[in-house]
Amino acid sequence: MPMNCQKCGACCIAPSITAAIPNMPQGKPAGVRCVNLTADNLCQLFDRPERPTFCRAWAPTPELCGDSLEQALRNITSLEEQTR
User: Fold this and answer.
1) N or C: which end of the chain has fewer CB within 10 A?
2) What average pLDDT does the chain have?
């Protein structure tokens, strides 16, 4: 079931991104904070055309996001490990 994004930043930290993204030409490893994520966990590219397709594909769901940053990090990290 879709939900509103909690803007916790987990989807900008937990997954690996193998393609180049703005300010990270080599992509980013899993567990590494994206340089485009602000200190208060907001994506600086969110409504901009250069926001990567990979990032646009993350749809917030209760199963993925849980109730907190910690739960979301755990859930996304688990998915990352399962799809390695």
Assistant:
1) N
2) 92
H runs (alpha helix) in 35-68: 53-56, 62-65
pTM value is 0.88
- For tokens 């749809």, what's the residue? 59
Q: What burial class does residue 24 get, using C-beta atoms within 10 Å of its C-beta: 0-12 exposed, 13-18 middle, 19+ buried?
A: middle
Q: Please name which of 61, 57, 46, 79 lies closest in space to residue 4, comparing C-alpha atoms.
A: 61
State the pLDDT at residue 75. Answer: 96
Provide the pLDDT for residue 69: 94
Q: How far apart are CA 1 and CA 43, in angstroms?
A: 23
Please report, for the chain, the start and end positions of each structural domain, with discontinuous segments joined by +.
1-84
Q: What are phi and psi of 37, to 5 degrees?
A: -95, 130
